[in-house]
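We were asked to recover a plausible sequence for a given structure. The inputs and outputs are reproduced exactly as logged, with field labels preserved.

PROBLEM: sequence recovery
POSITIONS: 194
GIVEN STRUCTURE:
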């Protein structure tokens, strides 16, 4: 019985996001190889966890669309799209960027110039020995509680085993956070999906 449990294939490898349950979509975007809590710089989560996921992953993109579609059906309204500016930018720039979505809510930290400056100066992605600052970001909105960070994909080398993000999150307790993703865990059909 234990061998069967250990040999179980994760749901995201068996079928696409359109066939996932609501619980599976939430699990994928909160607790999967593509989603981790952003930990305080000291290494432990302070207060409520701040969730992060790789929004540039094709599976995360599909899961996000499916979540939004289902939410619109429950509300009996039109689908609430991502902020228009981000959506258009994403369509044109997805392939050149690794995009990290971090749930911060629609907080007032993004209206404070010094907080935003900290975020712009202190947020970076590390790939091996290369550290690069974000190339763009999109603050949370009333319809989308995630700040979205974009980092140039060109610095990621094929042989890299991890992607490590150092973040400054305006308006969040213990705003210096880190998130680590293991590239080998992000495989879909034998290719990394991030």
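RECOVERED SEQUENCE:
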């Amino acid at each position: 019985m234990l061998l069967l449990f250990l040999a179980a294939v994760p749901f995201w490898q068996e079928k696409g996001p359109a066939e996932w349950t609501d619980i599976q979509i939430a699990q994928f975007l909160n607790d999967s190889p593509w989603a981790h809590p952003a930990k305080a710089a000291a290494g432990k989560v302070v207060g409520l966890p701040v969730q992060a996921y790789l929004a540039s992953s094709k599976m995360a993109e599909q899961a996000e669309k499916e979540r939004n579609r289902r939410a619109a059906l429950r509300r009996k309204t039109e689908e609430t799209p991502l902020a228009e500016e981000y959506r258009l930018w994403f369509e044109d720039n997805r392939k050149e960027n690794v995009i990290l979505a971090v749930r911060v809510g629609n907080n007032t930290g993004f209206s404070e110039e010094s907080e935003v400056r900290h975020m712009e100066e202190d947020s970076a992605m590390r790939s091996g020995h290369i550290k690069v600052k974000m190339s763009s970001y999109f603050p949370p909105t009333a319809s989308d509680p995630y700040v979205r960070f974009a980092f140039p994909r060109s610095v990621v080398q094929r042989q890299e085993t991890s992607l490590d993000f150092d973040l400054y999150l305006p308006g969040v307790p213990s705003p210096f956070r880190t998130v680590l993703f293991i590239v080998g865990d992000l495989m879909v059909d034998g290719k990394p999906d991030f």
